[in-house]
Amino acid sequence: xxxxxxxxxxxxxVFLGILFLVAQWEKSTKRKRxxxxxxxxxxxxxxxxxPSQPPVTRDMEPEQFSVSLEFEPADxxxxxxxxxxxxxxPIPVLRPRPLAMVVSLVDExxxxxxxxxxxxxxxxxxxxxxxxHTTECGKILPCMGIGEWTNVGVxxxxxxxxxxxxxxxxxxxxxxxxxxxxxxITLGFDSGKFDPAIITSAxxxxxxxxxxxxxxxxxxxxxxxxxLIVRLAVAMAMADGALHExxxxxxxxxxxxxxxxxxxxx
Length: 266
Known about the structure:
The protein is of the alpha+beta class. Helix content is about 25%, strand content about 30%. The chain folds into 2 domains: about 10-210, Immunoglobulins (Immunoglobulin-like); about 220-265. It has helices at about 1-30, 30-35, 220-235, 245-260, and strands spanning about 55, 65-70, 80-90, 95-105, 115, 115-120, 130-140, 145-155, 160, 165-180, 185, 190, 200-210. Helix 3 (about 220-235) packs antiparallel against helix 4.
């Protein structure tokens, strides 16, 4: 039990460190991911992917909305590997709409696709701990689209928890949404039916070799570890002799999201 407790403490410290680094990197690159929705004079359909933020063009009819990935290794700017998620192509709307790009992940290694979890709150769905990254893009007008490859999100493998460790086939799904509506996306999956919030979507796949155990590996250890983390959180919250309402609500919210996301492993 002592060894497991030390493991949980170490895991918690690593998680907090990653959370801090991701937050700092997110802050420093926020402007780079923004999409400036303005008209361009022309569109070069043969242009190569570029990290710059291109204008939006009206000359988009021959293309389809597409997604691509660019791998960036750890460097001084961000001490973790990451995949930049980029899109281009038309975004069909009949009237002006507030636009956002929602990036989701689904594990398609096995016949039955499964969700991919995130350990960082800014990269989670509102009601679950499944991975989601959202970028607000401003207003989109009819007959407009993204003229060149544009950053719309980022995937950091270090914060991901797949179903199992090892080489996994990860599907990246980018949905252009009307951000004034709430899209029906749960655990990375949409309903498969018409959703007025989803304007268009595209997907691509990449393979990644996860060294850490997934959420389907060693279920008993996960349950024991989660219990110790909850006990540790409560103990830290009560360091001043009392469990304040705000602290209790945060702990309760974390437990609820964890249980609702993977109820089969409760």
